[in-house]
Amino acid sequence: MLPWFQNDQFPLYLAPMAGVTNLVFRRICKELGADVMVTEFVSAEGIIQADQRTRRYTEFEDEQRPVGVQLFGADGSRMAEAARKIIDWKEPDFIDINFGCPVNKVVSKNGGSSLLRDCPVLADVAEKIAKGVGDQVPVTAKIRIGWDADSINAPDVCTLLEESGMQAIAIHGRTRSQGYSGEADWEVIDECSRTVSVPVVGNGDISTGQDVELRKGTTGVSGVMIGRAAMQHPWVFQEAKHYLETGEHLPPVTPETRWELIIRHARMLLEWNVFPNEKFAMQSMRSRLMAYSRGLRNGKKLRVRFSTVETLSELEDIAAEYLAWCEKGGNESTGFVRQTDPVGSLTS
Ligand SMILES: Cc1cc2nc3c(=O)[nH]c(=O)nc-3n(C[C@H](O)[C@H](O)[C@H](O)COP(=O)(O)O)c2cc1C
């Protein structure tokens, strides 16, 4: 049994999210209570070719452990080779195989969720990786519940994955065809958790401590994985833990605390030193800012401002204006008008 499931621990995983869960964001989520992290997916070929960008995707710090590196690919032997390479480089706590990615670029090359349609190949890939890695580190898998509504096969897939040597399975409760539409089907996730003896981690639409408690209490999952909610509100981990422990909600996160984190996130991104200059770093920060804006009043106006931000000091100015506006009452009538701003104020 993987250590983070032992003694009835109920780990909260940060879901792997390409373009989001980089070193800096993982650091934030870990500080806020995420227990287990998985890097965004990286291509097995990228690892074998030791390309620079792939190395960056797999970077992590010891404080973030346990950390898994998630691989995608279509060829079990190549993926096993990539897994061994990444173990040599980084010594992750586990290797995770992506059998859930719905994106055409991945699926068309028989990676990600495409193997849900071809169980023998899926089992073969999983087995080759598990055997190739041997007892160096555990191997886990992440799947969706099936290819489409007519072919929901997650319980069978889980059985195959367990037989192939996977030591835990994360299940996003949607089909590949659903993309992110509709709701995650937790009945199928529950069925899977009762079908196999390895831990099943449930994933899909968890955004509060109550959601975690509901799934913990009504399904057989051994942990949950949180994705989009963490992207917008990384405090979800500490809130969920507090709720599980006390049955009470933490007070809402204040705008001051939100901005503190936003600025710190941007600063850590600059300090990470992987971008050629500040402008590139801040451009890459924009999508994070868009997500963070969901937790702030007047988010729509903020998003307009965020869409052109190029420096940290610009972001600090927006934060100062926003907080000053909040102090004055923070509503439309007191106004937050920056006359020089060509794209309009946050409240107009
Ligand atoms: C922007 C984005 C990127 C994602 N990238 C990955 C990925 O690299 N690997 C993976 O297994 N899943 C990926 N996912 C899926 C998430 O891990 C998760 O399964 C999904 O968002 C459902 O969980 P949620 O409802 O908590 O968001 C991604 C999701 C999003 C929104």
For the terminal residues, how far apart are their CA atoms? 56 Å
Q: Let me know the average pLDDT.
A: 92
Quickly count the helices.
15
The Rg value, from CA coordinates, equals: 21 Å
Widest sheet: strand ordering: 1-2-4-5-6-7-8-9
Going by CATH, what is the homologous superfamily of the largest domain?
Aldolase class I
Reading the helices and strands in chain order gives EHEEHHEHEHHEHEHEHEHHHHHH
Q: Shape from CA axes?
A: globular
Query: What fraction, in percent, of the residue positions are helical?
Result: 40-55%
List the ligand species: flavin mononucleotide
CATH class of the largest domain: Alpha Beta
Poorly predicted runs: 333-348
Number of strands: 9
The name of the CATH architecture of the largest domain is Alpha-Beta Barrel
Strand residue percentage: 5-15%
Q: Please tell me the total number of domains.
A: 2
Report on this model:
The protein is α/β, with parallel strands linked by helices and 348 residues long. The chain has 2 domains: 3-246, Alpha-Beta Barrel (TIM Barrel); 255-327. It is 45% helix and 12% strand. Helix 4 links the parallel strand 4 (67-72) and strand 5. It is globular and about 60 Å long. The N and C termini lie far apart (56 Å). The model is unreliable at 333-348 (pLDDT under 50). Flavin mononucleotide (FMN) binds at residues 15-20, 40-41, 70, 98, 100-101, 142, 172, 203-206, 226-229. Flavin mononucleotide is lined by residues 15-20, 40-41, 70, 98, 100-101, 142, 172, 203-206, 226-229.
